[in-house]
Every structure is written in structure tokens, then in C-alpha cells.
Amino acid sequence: MNPEGGKEAERLFSSVVKSISDVKNTEVIFCPPFVYLDKLKKVYLGQSHTSEIKKVGLGAQNLFFEDSGAYTGEISGEMLYDIGVRYVIVGHSERRNPPFSSLGGAGGESNLEINKKMKSALKARLRPILCVGEKERDENHKYLNFVKTQIVECLDGIPKDSMREVIIAYEPVWAIGKGAVPANPLEFQEMNIFIKKILSDKFGAKNISKVRIIYGGSVDAKNAEEFLKIGQADGFLVGRASLDAKKFEKIIKTTESE
Ligand code: PGA
Fold first, then answer.
1. What is the pLDDT along the chain (258 residues), one digit of tens a residue?
2. How far is the CA of 189 from the centre of ligand 1 (A)?
3. Distance 183 CA to ligand 1 centre (A)
4. Within 10 A of 183 (CB to CB), how many other CB atoms are there?
5. Which end of the chain has fewer CB atoms at under 10 Å, N or C?
6. Please, what's the largest Cα pairwise distance for the chain?
């Protein structure tokens, strides 16, 4: 539920878009709450230099898994696509936990529910940003299996040739939010290789060559470079630092120069 208020969302968005007019190789996707999406699209279209920036896109933070019907209060992928949204975050760790409930009634969205959302997003021509990540690390490396299960179950039944649309955000839950410490770039590097191996075993190396694996969890202007260089991250899912135009711009520029 950030930023607080449409005016602040517009201000932040305009400021970042203006400052990245020379960015050529980095794609920047803004994923605000639903109610700001249409507003931001209009701000973007109204900017004189928009034609120079081809790499700015809009994403949503969630979608419902049914395409249409009597589901009061829900928003479908088609509805998002219709207003110009092209990306959607699916299975963010905050949604995988209470207070959100799942299909089975347990706390948080399950892999099954997230899998339905993945299918629904792809059907609506949205590029899903699938979030995975363990809650904690253990010496016996059980966390690797935890992440593997998330990936395998959330991508179950996804056609091979849809995989080029999929972005995987590895976001260890312990690294997200106020007071958390980011992962070490080497920890990300290990996960990056591990995730590629899971995907390659499931879909074939050729079909996953375009899948981007990005890092999320306390990303800032200082640690971004190492995640790119050492961790070989394809990008970032930025939370708090994206709410400060200057900090967010720095992360974008670091990504551009790598
Ligand atoms: P953070 O959030 O960058 O503030 O840790 C990441 C996220 O919410 O996915």
C-alpha cells in the first residue's frame, strides 16, 4: 500500500521517468497499487520525451486467477492488460502469508493458487514476475528444497514456449523489509545457478535462456552493483528504495552501467 496517496505516486513516477531519459538498456517497470496504474499511464503518455524512453512499463502487484465472472472485488489479468499494464507480480512473500488467506483456507496464498495466477497472467499476455524465497536458512540446506518446490509447483503446466515471458524474483523473506539485511551477492549467485538448473531440468535449457532471474530484498544503491557483478542478477525487485526517487534512480543507473 505504498506510496501513500495518488499525488505522491505521480510525483515519484514523474521524477524517476524524467531522470532516466538517457537510459537505454535497462527496463524499468513500475508496479504501484492498482488504483494508481491508470493515472501513471496518463502521466507517462503526457510527458514530451516519452517517445525516447521505450523501456518504461507498468506492472500490477497482484491479479485474480479467474479471467471473468462473479468475483466481487477482484481484478483480472485482462482488465489489467486493457489499461496498458504488461507485467504483474505473482506470489509476493507478503501475499504468501497471513493476513491473506488461500484457497484451502490456510494462511497466505499457496503454490497452487499462485500457479493458477501464473496461468491466468500469461493467458492475458502479462509477463508474470514470480516471487520465490525461503523464510529462513538452515545448515542442512533444506531451504534449497523449499525454493525448488515453490518453483516447480508454481510453474506446473506452464507451456515451455511461455517461459520466455516469465521473470523469477528470488526474494529471501528474511531479507525483505525494514530492519532486514540483504542477502550476500554470493548467496544470490548460488540461488541463481540453482534456479536455472531447476528451470532447465523442467523446461529444457533452450526454452529458459530468456528467463530473467532478479534479486529482491533490501536492494539499495550501494549493494546493487555487487548483485549484478558477483551475483549475475538480471535485475531487481526494489521495495523501500523505490519510494525515494533519488535512491531508485541510482539503482537504475547502476544497472544501466553494468
Ligand atoms: P525491500 O522490499 O526492498 O523494501 O526489502 C522488497 C519487496 O517488498 O519485495
1. 999 999 999 999 999 998 888 888 999 999 999 999 999 998 887 775 555 556 899 999 999 999 999 999 999 999 999 999 999 999 999 999 989 877 766 789 999 999 999 999 999 999 999 999 999 999 999 999 999 999 999 999 999 999 999 999 999 999 999 999 999 999 999 999 999 999 999 999 999 999 999 999 999 999 999 999 999 999 999 999 999 999 999 999 999 988
2. 19
3. 12
4. 26
5. N
6. 55
List the 28-30 sheet strands across, edge first: 28-30, 56-60, 87-90, 127-132, 167-170, 212-216, 236-237
Residue 197, H or E segment: helix 185-203
Give the 3-state secondary structure of residue 102: coil
CA of 86 to the centre of ligand 1 (A): 21
Q: Give yes or no for a cis peptide into 3 (omega within 30° of 0).
A: yes
Task: Fill in the amino acid letter for 184.
Answer: N
Nearest CA to 114 out of 136, 97, 139, 134 is that of 97
Catalytic residue among 94, 109, 113, 171: 171
Place of cell 490456510: 106
Amino acid at site 226: E
94 and 71 Cβ atoms separated by less than 8 Å: no
Q: How many residues in total does the chain contain?
A: 258
Q: Which residues line ligand 1 (CB under 6 A)?
A: 171, 176-177, 216-219, 237-240
Question: Of 52, 92, 134, 249, which residue is the catalytic one?
Answer: 92
